[in-house]
Design a protein that fits this description.
phosphatidylinositol-3-phosphate binding, alpha/beta, phosphatidylinositol-3,5-bisphosphate binding, 5 strands, phosphatidylinositol-4,5-bisphosphate binding, phosphatidylinositol-3,4-bisphosphate binding
Length: 146
Amino acid sequence: MEASVILPILKKKLAFLSGGKDRRSGLILTIPLCLEQTNMDELSVTLDYLLSIPSEKCKARGFTVIVDGRKSQWNVVKTVVVMLQNVVPAEVSLVCVVKPDEFWDKKVTHFCFWKEKDRLGFEVILVSANKLTRYIEPCQLTEDFG
C-alpha cells in the first residue's frame, strides 16, 4: 500500500512511528487518542500501513505501543487495545496506556485487562505520563510525554 493512497487518513495522525525504541530495541508506535471519536476503520488502515514500513528484522523485536488516553474516554481506550490484538497481535509485546490525571476507576480498568491478558497475547500496563520512563528511556519519547 502506498502512502499517497491513504494520505488523507495519515494526515489525521491517528498513529505514528516516532523512530524511538523501547528498552528491548523494539520500535515504539504511538496512538494519540483525542476527545473526538476515533474512527476505528481509519486507525486500522493507518496501523496496517505503518506496520508495513519496518523491516522483518525490526518487526521480530516487537513493538511497544503507547496509547495516549489522557484526552479520551476509557471505552475508546479499551476498544483500541482490543483492536490491537486483532490487527497486530504477533508484533506487539507491550501496550502502555497513558492514563489521565483524573484517572478512570482503577479497579474496573485493572480487572478489564487482567481478565483479557491471555486472549490479548501482550501485556497491558496503565501508567501516568511521568512514569512512562520506567518502560521507555526519556530520550526515546516524543515531546508529548514531557
